[in-house]
Amino acid sequence: MYCLIKPTNKSVRRLIGETSGRTVPERTGGEMSVLTLEGVSKHFGAIQALEEVSLTLGAGEVLGVMGDNGAGKSTLVKIIAGNYRPSEGRIFIAGEQKAFHRPIEARQSGIEIVYQDLALCDNLTAATNVFLGRELTRSFGPFRIMDYAAMNAAATKLFRELKSETRPRDLVRDMSGGQRQAVAIARTRLASARIVLMDEPTAAISVRQVAEVLNLIRELKRQQIAVILISHRMPDVFAVADRITVLRRGRKVADKPTSETTPEEITGLITGAIQAA
To answer: What is the pTM (predicted TM-score) of this model?
Structure first.
């Protein structure tokens, strides 16, 4: 069963190409952060999942977040995505303080998340998955029917922007891991996201598919979309991230430009063998 949403004329024009481009948050002097966390903490009863974590993220910046299991990575992402409310601390989006009570409020602020399981429907086409819940329709007498042609055309443009070979009419169940990631990322582009959160996007896929996903992240960066990349795969993080933040037992122990650190140092920080300066 489909949820049919009648799009506005403006949104249809944007999707099928009568308008072009996307709104990028303005940056004063090139320094304004699209996302700022100040002293964010989260506890569940007596369990302290995050403790006074602060970070910034600029437009077009890729931030790798690394840490062992239980370090607080998932909690951090869920707070930014609006799934959890922080126990303490503040969140700013493009300089404006926000208090998200639900994920829809984070999405309205331009935050999209690509979960590890991607949340795709295997029996539907790539284009239908991109528009799931936001389907384009057209009038047919007194009825409204799905406008598959418009959705296929819009999805084609999105895949082309992402430089992906994914085809809009292909069924998701027949796709590679890299193509599935392209579908999930195209869905965030449909929403004009300013910030994309990616949870282990290169886990359990082949080397070739990993390369496809990393190219998708580079393309988001080129389009001035900020990315937070949660990953255990050190080579992937070093390949695309501008900075690496390390979490350990709920605390931020390091925030380093990728060019000024090494996999060995990051591994030491994750395990505690190296103490943060």
So the answer is: 0.81
pLDDT at 26: 41
Q: What is the pLDDT of residues 32-85, one digit of tens each?
A: 799 999 999 999 999 999 999 999 999 999 999 999 999 999 999 999 999 999
CATH superfamily ID and name for 29-124+176-271: P-loop containing nucleotide triphosphate hydrolases (3.40.50.300)
Beta-carbon contacts of 14 under 8 Å, excluding residues fewer than 6 positions away, are: none
Q: Domain extents for the chain?
A: 29-124+176-271
> Mean per-residue pLDDT for 13-31?
41
Q: What is the mean pLDDT of residues 88-106?
A: 95
What is the residue-wise DSSP string for the chain?
A: ---B----HHHHHHHHTSS--------GGG--EEEEEEEEEEEETTEEEEEEEEEEEETT-EEEEE--TTSSHHHHHHHHTTSS--SEEEEEETTEEE--SSHHHHHHTTEEEE-TTTT--TTSBHHHHHTTTSB-EEEETTEEEE-HHHHHHHHHHHHHHTT----TTSBGGGS-HHHHHHHHHHHHHHTT-SEEEEESTTTT--HHHHHHHHHHHHHHHHTT-EEEEE-S-HHHHHHH-SEEEEEETTEEEEEEEGGG--HHHHHHHHHTSS---
pLDDT in tens, 99-124: 999 999 999 999 999 887 778 999 99
